[in-house]
């Protein structure tokens, strides 16, 4: 590795170049929104100086779920079953609470087959970044509607969507999630900053990222298309993540910036574009999302943040050492204790 | 106190004849949810404390309250613990079933009945009746308990059934000769020494025993006498044993979803882990998660094991079906998992509170595509404990799902056993490379490479800090370096290695227990909770002149000794509790050249097998063969 690093290359706090956060070459369609999200994950991990051996990448099944192979090649990854990635992440983060789990799912994987695992992961507050690469269609099986496609939406082969969509952000908030964001894969800066904030957040951080399917759902009249996103994205605020070693800029007008300090040190700064939007208000977030759906608005940003709920490993009151690394000394009770139990059954 | 209303019938079995000591069965017919479990456990423990071999089986409905339930207690001087056909002593406490319960008694049988029964009538004159003063005793006991503050007035109804059940404990103690100090000891054990409930129940027992002594002349021949056959032994349910096994096996993550008859395994896991697996400052060295369904439960297990935990789940047949996809995934990605299947009668809900051995084939082959698994087959509570810990060693050694196939009878009923032995071997975490090893091996290491010739590759755990330690786990085709591959030769090589791994397991899993009799023409083969009936049947068969060898299977895949056993006998009866002869079918698949020697005795009606049934089946077939000139 050392040999491949160019002299004078730009490095992060671990002395790593950004290229060292790459994965293998993508096999997704050229121009797929998912590829730019993979690139933003690489950006965020590099900027946060994440040690890759402490990262696990997880996914379900679908186009989105292939992407963990395309970033952070030095982290363990698991491409699990369709819709079941949250359960695997639940087990893995309990087994080793030192790891940062990054899950990548899609709208089919999360909104339909994996809807129950999604909701239960949220109510347990499994510590992980949960990314939904949302394009409104099943790409890998050639363009069927997913549950996040909007009523009235048309696709090339499957006609018109007759049912209302599920909003993964509203579902997340209702299920108790404390970090809920919506973004657009075409908005590189926002995606990157949201990812950094999500990676620093301690519980489940949901990022529902509209990520156009260039093959099956990119007609200009589709609200999951690239053109639509570019033209209609309405950010509620401009998000920036200030790392502990960086200086916070305080030259904003009072009331125009919302700051949320995370347990881990970083501070999220939300410079308000929509005056009055309060990202710490659960009902405010739900009401705004509902309004957006009614009006057909494409709002983005950190919709809701609250870091107060304990995570699953915290609730399990686990020992400091990850369960995975415990030895026989810790996990096999004494001979005397078994003798005692046997006496109780005599 | 009421006067005795007993009138002896012209009972044929009474008087004159010899006493029948320590060799009979009692059935308590009660209403589910009435609280008779405490009474039944008190009787079992008291008999056990008297040194008499005893076994308790609860035949209960899929219901919380109101349906009939029967608890059978068998005392056997010969130490037999199988279910027995025919029960001599009935405790009739359920109006819904009393008529039929009485009908089933053998001539000379005994009926203790509650004076609260409305539908009771003396329909037979060849049995002995004793009426119990339940109405008055339970009313007085309740009044006293409420007056003393032992129970709250509002709880009167809740306690009524429990106290009423204690009436038959006292009367049976007196009439059968159960030692009162043993009853006291049993109550102390039952209530874990809590004084108030012990005293409350003890008072009723004492009082009703005294009443019986004064008012009920002994008319039947059944009695117990102290023996010395239970000293140093324990009495326990298989699910408790399995849970303890897991805890001593270093379980660190368990995920489960409620299902009868596996739920108590998870409950016991919770209870004992909280006692045994916390640090002095109260931190847990384990996590137990109640999942949203069985798919989630196995998903959590797979995720936890992949990350390096010793993870398990417990379920029953319907849960196993739901776990199919993950089990296939874990087999192919080579992730350890311990899966308890406490079998019940299926398909679907089937008879959810009745026993079966119907999941053998399913567990062995669960998945899609080509899959075959290690399946452990505990035949006793002691093996539930033992396999409870060794299952983790096997799962991690072989990096694959390991099933432990228990069943409702083994799991939820009370079995006498030698105390469990502390694990003799240290915990085996299998082939895991640490950071140093990864650095040393460099590019040599491949996640799915067979470097030792046993089909088992080396793995790394997330969190291992070494260049090249990470790999990508996928259910898709992959080569030896865990890279995505759709090449036919990569697929073939990988599947051949997985098959080799399975071959390695043959002599690694628990070996069958074989009792080969010199010159025996007939062999018997069984597994799991069919064992006690087969053990007893062998004695019966010997008395009929049929000497038998016996192989008790303890795991799949078969070891070579299974083939040898079949080859050494002219007929091998394969005894199992399912319709389609699942074990016999597997044996025929594996040993086609020996298939004609196999005779299937496959039977499943929801109840545990009896020695009488097994003996009858073998004898009938043997006679047929003899008649046919063999």
Strand order of the largest sheet of chain A: 2-1-3-4-10-9-15-11
The CATH class of the largest domain in chain B, by name, is Alpha Beta
Per DSSP, the total helix count of chain A is 12
- List how many beta strands of chain B DSSP finds: 23
Oligomer: heterodimer
Query: In CATH terms, what is the architecture of chain A?
Result: 3-Layer(aba) Sandwich
Query: Structural class, judged by helices and strands of chain B?
Result: alpha/beta
CATH class of chain A: Alpha Beta
Spans of chain B with pLDDT under 50 lasting ≥5 residues?
Answer: 1-15
- As a percent range, the share of helical residues of chain A equals 25-40%
- Under CATH, the topology of the largest domain in chain B can be stated as Pyruvate-ferredoxin Oxidoreductase, domain 3
Query: What is the overall shape of chain B?
Result: globular
Strand/helix succession of chain A: HEHEHEHHEEEEEHEHEHEEEEHEHHH
- Largest interface (C-beta under 8 Å): A-B, 62 and 73 residues
């Amino acid at each position: 590795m050392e040999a491949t690093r160019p002299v004078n290359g730009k490095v992060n706090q671990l002395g790593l170049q950004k290229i060292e956060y790459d994965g293998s070459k993508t096999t997704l369609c050229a121009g797929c929104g998912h590829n730019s999200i993979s690139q933003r994950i690489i950006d965020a991990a590099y900027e946060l100086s994440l040690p890759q051996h402490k990262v696990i990448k997880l996914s379900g099944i679908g186009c989105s779920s292939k992407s963990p192979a395309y970033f952070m090649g030095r982290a363990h990854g698991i491409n699990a079953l369709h819709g079941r990635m949250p359960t695997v992440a639940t087990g893995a983060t309990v087994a080793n609470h030192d790891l940062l789990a990054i899950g990548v799912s899609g709208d089919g994987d999360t909104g339909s087959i994996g809807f129950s695992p999604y909701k239960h992961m949220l109510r347990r507050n499994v510590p992980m970044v949960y990314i939904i690469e949302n394009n409104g269609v099943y790409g890998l099986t050639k363009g069927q509607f997913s549950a996040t496609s909007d009523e009235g939406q048309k696709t090339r082969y499957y006609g018109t969507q007759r049912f209302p969509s599920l909003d993964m952000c509203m579902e997340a908030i209702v299920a108790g999630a404390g970090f809920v964001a919506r973004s657009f894969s075409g908005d590189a800066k926002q995606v990157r900053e949201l990812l950094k904030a999500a990676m620093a957040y301690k519980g489940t951080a949901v990022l529902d990222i509209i990520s156009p399917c260039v093959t099956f759902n990119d007609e200009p009249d589709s609200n999951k298309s690239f053109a639509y996103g570019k033209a209609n994205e309405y950010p509620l605020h401009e998000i920036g993540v200030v790392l502990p070693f960086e200086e916070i800029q305080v030259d904003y007008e009072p009331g125009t910036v919302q700051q949320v300090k995370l347990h881990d040190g970083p501070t999220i700064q939300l410079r308000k574009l929509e005056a009055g939007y309060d990202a710490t208000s659960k009902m405010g977030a739900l009401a705004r999302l509902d309004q957006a759906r009614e009006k057909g608005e494409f709002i983005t940003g950190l919709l809701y943040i609250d870091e107060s709920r304990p995570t699953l490993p915290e609730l399990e009151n686990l020992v400091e050492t990850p369960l995975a690394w415990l030895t026989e000394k810790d996990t096999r009770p004494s001979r005397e204790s078994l003798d005692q139990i046997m006496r109780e059954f005599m | 106190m009421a006067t005795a209303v007993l009138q002896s019938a012209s009972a044929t079995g009474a008087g004159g004849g010899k006493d029948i000591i320590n060799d009979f069965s009692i059935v308590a017919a009660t209403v589910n949810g009435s609280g008779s479990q405490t009474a039944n456990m008190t009787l079992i423990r008291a008999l056990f404390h008297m040194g008499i071999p005893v076994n308790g089986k609860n035949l209960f409905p899929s219901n919380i309250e109101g349906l009939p339930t029967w608890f059978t207690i068998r005392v056997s001087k010969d130490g037999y613990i199988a279910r027995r056909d025919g029960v001599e002593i009935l405790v009739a406490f359920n109006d819904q079933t009393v008529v039929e319960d009485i009908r089933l008694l053998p001539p000379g049988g005994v009926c203790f009945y509650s004076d609260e029964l409305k539908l009771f009538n003396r329909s037979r004159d060849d049995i002995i009746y004793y009426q119990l003063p339940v109405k008055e005793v339970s009313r007085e006991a309740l009044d006293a308990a409420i007056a003393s503050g032992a129970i709250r007035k509002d709880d009167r109804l809740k306690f009524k059934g429990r106290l009423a059940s204690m009436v038959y404990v006292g009367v049976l103690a007196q009439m059968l000769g159960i030692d009162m100090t043993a009853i006291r000891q049993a109550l102390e054990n039952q209530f874990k020494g809590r004084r108030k409930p012990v005293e409350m129940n003890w008072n009723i027992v004492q009082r009703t025993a005294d009443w019986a002594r004064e008012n009920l002349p002994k008319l039947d021949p059944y009695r117990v006498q102290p023996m010395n056959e239970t000293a140093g032994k324990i009495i326990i349910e298989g699910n408790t044993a399995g849970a303890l096994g897991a805890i001593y096996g270093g379980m660190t993550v368990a995920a489960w979803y409620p299902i009868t008859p596996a739920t108590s395994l998870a409950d016991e896991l919770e209870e004992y882990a909280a006692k045994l697996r916390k640090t002095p400052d109260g931190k847990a060295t384990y996590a137990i998660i109640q999942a949203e369904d069985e798919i989630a439960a196995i998903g959590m297990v797979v995720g936890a094991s992949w990350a390096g935990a010793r993870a398990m789940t417990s379920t029953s047949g319907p849960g196993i079906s739901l776990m199919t996809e993950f089990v296939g995934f874990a087999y192919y990605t080579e992730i350890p998992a311990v899966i308890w299947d406490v079998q019940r009668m299926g398909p679907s809900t089937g008879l959810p509170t009745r026993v079966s051995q119907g999941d053998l084939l399913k567990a062995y082959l669960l998945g899609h595509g080509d899959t075959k698994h290690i399946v452990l087959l505990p035949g006793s509570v002691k093996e539930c404990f033992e396999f409870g810990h060794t299952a983790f060693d096997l799962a991690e050694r072989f990096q694959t799902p390991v099933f432990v196939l228990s069943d409702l009878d083994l799991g939820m009923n009370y079995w006498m056993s030698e105390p469990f032995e502390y694990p003799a071997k240290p915990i085996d975490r299998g082939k895991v490379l640490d950071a140093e090893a990864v650095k040393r091996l460099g590019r040599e290491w491949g996640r799915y490479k067979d470097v030792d010739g046993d089909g088992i590759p080396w793995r790394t755990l997330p969190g291992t800090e070494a260049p090249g330690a990470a790999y990508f786990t996928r259910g898709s085709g992959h080569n030896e370096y865990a890279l995505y591959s759709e090449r036919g030769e990569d697929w073939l090589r990988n599947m051949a290695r997985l098959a080799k791994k399975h071959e390695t397991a043959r002599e690694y899993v628990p070996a069958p227990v074989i009792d080969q009799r010199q010159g025996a023409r007939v062999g018997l083969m069984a597994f799991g909770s069919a064992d006690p009936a087969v053990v007893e049947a062998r004695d019966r068969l010997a008395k009929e002149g049929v000497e038998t060898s016996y192989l008790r299977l303890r795991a799949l895949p078969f070891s070579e000794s299974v083939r040898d056993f079949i080859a050494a006998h002219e007929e091998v009866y394969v005894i199992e509790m399912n319709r389609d002869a699942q074990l016999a079918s597997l044996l025929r698949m594996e040993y086609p050249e020996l298939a004609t020697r196999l005779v299937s005795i496959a039977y499943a009606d929801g109840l545990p097998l009896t020695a009488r049934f097994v003996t009858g089946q073998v004898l009938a077939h043997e006679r047929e063969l003899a008649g046919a000139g063999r």
